[in-house]
Each structure stands twice: as structure tokens, then as C-alpha cells.
Amino acid sequence: MKKKLLSLFLIALAGNSFAQDAITYQKPAKEIVDLLLAKPTPGVSIDSKAEWILFSERNPYPSIEELAMPEYKIAGMRINPNNYSPSRQTFINNFSLKNIKTGKTVAITGLPATLYAGNVRWNPSENKIAFTQTGQNRIDLYVIDVATGKAAKVNKQPLNAILGSSIIWVDDQTLIYQVATKAASMAPARPLAPKGPTVQENLGKVAPSATIQDLIKSPYDEQLFEFFATSQLVQNKNGVETPIGSPAIYSSVSLSPDKNYFLVRTIKKPFSYLVSAGGFPSVVKIIDRSGKMVKQLADLPSTEVRPSGYDNVQNVPRNFDWRDDEAATITWAQPLDSGLIKKKVEYHDAVYELKAPFNGSAKELFKTKTRYAGTSWGNATLALVREISRTNQTSKLNRFNPSTGTLETLYELNTTDAYNNPGSPVTEKNKFGRQVILTTDNGTKLLLNNTTGASPKGDLPFLAKFDLNTKKSEILWRCQEGSFETVTDVLDPQKLVLLTRRESKTDVPNYFIKNLVLKTADRQITNFTNPYTALDGVSKQKISYKRADGIDLTGDLYLPKGYNKDKDGPLPVLIWAYPREFNSANDAAQVRGSENKFTMVSSGGPLFFVTQGYAVLDNAEMPIVAKEGKRPNDSFVEQLKLNAEAAINKLSEMGVGDRNRMAVGGHSYGAFMTANLLAHTNLFKAGIARSGAYNRTLTPFGFQNEDRTYWQAPQLYYEMSPFSYADKIKTPILLIHGEMDDNQGTFPINSERLFNAIKGHGGTTRFVYLPYEAHGYRAKENIMHMLWETNRWLDTYVKNAKPTSAK
Description:
Elements: H1 2-5, E1 7-14, E2 17-24, H2 30-37, E3 43-46, E4 52-58, H3 64-67, E5 72-74, E6 77-80, E7 85-86, E8 92-99, E9 105-107, E10 117-122, E11 128-134, E12 139-145, E13 150-153, E14 168-171, E15 174-180, H4 219-229, E16 231-237, E17 240-248, E18 250-255, E19 261-267, E20 282-288, E21 293-300, E22 318-322, E23 329-335, E24 349-355, E25 363-368, E26 371-379, E27 382-389, E28 394-400, E29 407-414, E30 424-425, E31 427-429, E32 435-437, E33 439-440, E34 445-450, E35 462-467, E36 473-478, E37 484-492, E38 497-503, E39 510-515, E40 523-524, E41 539-546, E42 552-559, H5 565-568, E43 571-577, E44 580-582, H6 585-588, E45 615-620, E46 623-625, H7 636-654, E47 657-667, H8 669-680, E48 686-690, H9 714-719, E49 733-738, H10 749-760, E50 765-770, H11 780-799
Helix pairs in contact: 7-8
């Protein structure tokens, strides 16, 4: 059985004929294996007083046997039918605590022998930590006592996490969560024969649907969804579980700031065959702590009838949430344009509130001129309101005074304009224990934290004061050039004591306490060491170059250990990229990223191949820019070519890249890019395309940031589809896809059909189907084999390619 499990069915090229090989998993070179399996530094969770650190260790790569466990694919979800949990998770496998003041590390006792932890939650006083433990047959809830370092199971009934884990601390002794109502073994049995056909119909309603996978397909799927998604809300006080209301299909549960009410959303029938569970018909209501309904706020239809277009919404209430600055006040938005953003109206959304006891009339708070995108609450005179236009790539932040009802714009900018992003407001806990906007200088200023800090010199994060009256920022601290440091928390806003995370090219990220007022020496509170010693000696630099039409581009260039340009000459190159759309050429030209970040290794990234003698250009900018009043995608292929030519020319001019031995690759939209480059240019010797979508007619209601439908722009869909030009793909292309891809639009049939089309026209291609993998690859065996396939392909068609000139 294990041998059969460890077989891959790969379509391989054999001379001039084609064969299907069943081969066992292969391992790449030792240097690649060592990088992949290096133990990453632990995850860090630090309490707000910076007294305790919780370290979380993970094994990021489960075995293929773990991925092969039973799994149901229903309602856009993947669930484990044995334990009421999502089937694809990365778990915490060990915990430890460190007291920052004493420096002492505490090993936690009472943990399960085999730990599969998640959903970590500190209690209000931050002296206890709750987490879920996912076993083979049930999910349990544990609590760690920080002072003693002891963990103990606190639940009696198994939890239900199918629609998410709503683990809520009410106070230091009371938890709210959802439990299963029946044993998993009682799930409906699949009938030997259906009672009839599966039928869907539409009676004249406009119902555009995105290409979502794993949807309900039969009445039996409906039964399974209802069985596994139904849960009972319970309160656990000092170990005693008390049911709250009746079982229901809870899609969300939120406790009011004063802890007296719940805002709940429950799914109801009929279940849709066209959208996932998040789009099923639902009821939004307020219940009290006993579960009794206080107020029904909305009865929402299925999102099947949501209009297409990224700024369009259903003509129903949305964005239900609590005001964080009041005891129990609900807010929501309602479109004023029937949900259609192109409708000529002065205001597109209105936002309302309803206060406890919820028996009065809703009050209008404000209106927005574009699409409402949420509110950050501060106090009775301050809130920050966000508006967005995804189509126009714009974002607006408004200052709202809840007492007077005035709404004033603080700033507006392109969402792609990284240089002028002022940052995010720093928050603090209020009397309800909710995070609200922190103000300084008698309420006249905000602290803004920009954890990116994009600049022409690269990313330099900063902390600033923003004056609400002058609408100008004053930078209080900025990361020094030559390193990369971000503010992860403001421990004391008055004394400006900060918790920061600092790294450099050679220094692994560690945490420090910094005092901006006293300017004392920074205190290091973690001591992580480099897990990727195999990359020691590898050089990294951010290179800049210019596209033929004048747009500036950048990329992260990695060169092998010991490489000497004068001695070793130009290297074979792997360019790895992911295209992005821009309405502004200036924004497209901005520098993104920092060469001073420590190099972290991702299983899906290209850095492994720098150990095999390749120059690797990672994050190569591939902007697609709107030109002459047209949309960005109207010249998609032309701009891809300009981007690729610019990168190749730069590497060749530097003397580090051999323009006759260039490969290009990417994942998802990067794979789509790769196939297009090979279909329309002869710039490369090979391509690596992982889990891409290659026929855009399979995503007819929009894709990526393109919101025109196929019927509105059929020629665009045809020309952007590399499948349309499969007969032109003569450059060797390696196609890799997870057989259980769950991403919207990237059905595995994309790779199957592209392979067949290239093969049918005599192209050179190989198709690797990774068993049990979704859109991102997880199993250790699959990832190692993927890296082996990639290295083999690169060596065959790039490193050892005959030196012919690119056209």
C-alpha cells in the first residue's frame, strides 16, 4: 500500500514517443534537501506588557501519508470526516515559554504526547493561553497557566471547527466555543444509487459565478454539509460546559464589548451549488448570553446573484460588526447605488448603527462616495473610515466624529503607491478590552506604524506621529539603512518604548525592546540562530534596471557561494516572478522590498537552485501598466516581453547572466506569465510553470484584477490565454500541478489541457501531477520530488544548453 502511495504518475518524454511513467519519489541534491528540511526559527507571541514570550515550533512539511487521510470536499471546503476539522492545516508541534525579565525559559508540561495545536488565544489578563489540539478523532481545548507552565484540557465535548474556530475568552475563567452535536461516525452514509438526477435551474435572474472548486454537487453533499457544519455554542466556566441556544450552522460568532450579547450569522437552506458556504443564504441576528434571540438584523440571500465587477456588491446590508468603543452597538453598511458602482449617484454606501437593547430605529452615521471598506473605532469623537475602489486602485481614509457626525478626508492615495503610504494606526485596549485607536497630544495626533516603509532606497519601516488637524506626519523613528527592522508593538506610547523585530542580510530576525525617549541600548529578548547555513556565502543584492519604455524595475539577485564573475564568467539564470497590474506608471516603478532582509527559504521559492550553480533573480518586477487611457491587461503580452527583455539585458550587462541560458518560472499567476512568455517570445531556454491557469475562458467572470467578463472582452480573454497559442510553445516547459488544487480558477484541467495541446503540436514538455496536493504544496515527499524535477529540467535545457542566440 505504501509503495502504491509513493508512486507518481508522470507524463514523460521518451525520444520521439510519449509514455506514462510510474516512478517512485526522487530526492534532489543534498544541498537542496538540507535547505528544505532546515528547522525554521519558532513563531513568537509576546504579551502586551512584554513579560512573557510564547514560542511555537512547527513542522511545516507533513508526510504524504498525512495528506492522504480521509477528506470530504464540499461547499468550497475540505474537511476531515473523522474529527470535525479542516483537513489541511499546519500545526504547532511544541510550545515553550520565556520570562523576558528573568530570561528563564519554561518547558510546558501537560501537553498531549503528540501535539497538533492551533488557534492560540491569550486571556484578558494574559496569564493564560488557550489552544486547540486536533487529534485523529476529535478536537480538544487546552489552557496553559503561564505562571506554572502547566497545560490542561478544559473541554468535555469535542469541538467543531468546520467553519472556523470561534475561541472567545469572556473573562479569565470563561471561554466560548462550538462543539459537535453528534459523533463523526454518525455521518450520513453514501447511498449505493441516487434517488434521481441532480438538477439546477435559473429563472431569469442574473447570477454570475466565479470558478470555485469543491462545491456541493448532489443531495448527498448537502446532507454531509449540514451534518458536519452544524454545531452547538457552549460556555465553559471553570470547566463546566453550558449550552447557549440551539444547534445551528454558525458561520460567525462575535461577542459584544460589554460581553452581554452575541452577533451571530447562521447559514440556512437552500444550500447553493454555485458558491461556497460563505455565500449561502444566511440570517444575521443578535442573541443574548443564554442564546435567546434579541433582534434579527438581516435575512440574506445567496451570493449567487451578486453582480460581477470587483466594486459591485449585492443590494443587501453587509459588514455587520460591533463598535469597539461602545458597550453594545451594531454597525453595518447598505449600498445606495443598488450595489452597482457605475450608477451615477453622489454617495455609494451608507453606514448605520443600532444600540442595545436593539428595539429602536437604526441611525445613519455617514455616507461614503466610494465603496465602504470598514471602520477603526477610537472614542466618542474619533473613528477612521476606509473607502476603496479596486477597479481604480484607490483608497481613502476619513476622520469621523461619532458625536457630531462629521466626516473629513485625511488622505487619498493609490493602493499601489507604496512610497506615500503613511502606515496603520497604533491601537490600545480600552475599558472593554477591545483594540481602539491610540491618540497622543491630547487627542490631536495618532501614532502610525508602517512595517514596510517603502522608499527609493528600499524598504525602511518607520513609526510616525500624524497630526489630525494639519494632516501631516512627523517620523519619530525609522529603520537604519543596512538593516531591516519593524515595530511589532508599542509597549508604552508615552515613553515610546517599542518592541521591534530586526534582521539583516546575515542576521536572522530577532526581537528587541527599544526606548526612543531614554535612548538606552536596545535589549535583545530572543536569540535565534541561522537555520540556513547552506546559504552562507551566497551573495544577495537588489538590482535596478529600466524597461525599454522607461519604467524602472527591480529584482533580488542571488549569486552562488564563491562565485567570481571574472573567473567563472556568466552563469545560467532562473528568473522567478509574479505579474501585478498598475494604473500608474510611477507606482509601477517604485522600489519594493529590501536587500537587507535575512534570506528565508520558502519551499515554493527558487533559492534552492543558487546552490546548484545558477544565478537566481527572485521577485523580478513584472508590472502590467495602464497605457493611453486603456486597462493594464489591454497590452499584457507586450508588457511581459518588455519586462523579461529588461531583466535579461541587465543580467547580461552585469556579466553574471548568460543570455543564452535563461529560464523563467513562477507559481499560479506566475505560471500563467511563464506560459505566455514561452508562447510569444524566444527569450528563454526553458520554463517552470506551477499550478497555473492557462485558458482564461475557464474563468469567464473575471480573473486576478481583471473584472471585465469574457462576453465583454472576448478577444482579451483569447489573447491572454497561452492555451490559445500552444502551437507556438516550442521552448521546453515543465508543468507541475497539485491534483487537488483548491484555488479559484486554477483547476488542474488547465495543466492537463495545456500539456496535451503542446504535445499535440510537437513541443517539448513534461507534466508532473502531485498527489493529494492543493494549490500550495505541503507533503515533504512531493516538495522534494518537485525540486528534483525542476533541477533536472534546468540542468537539461538551461545549464547544458547549446549557446545559441535568443531572438
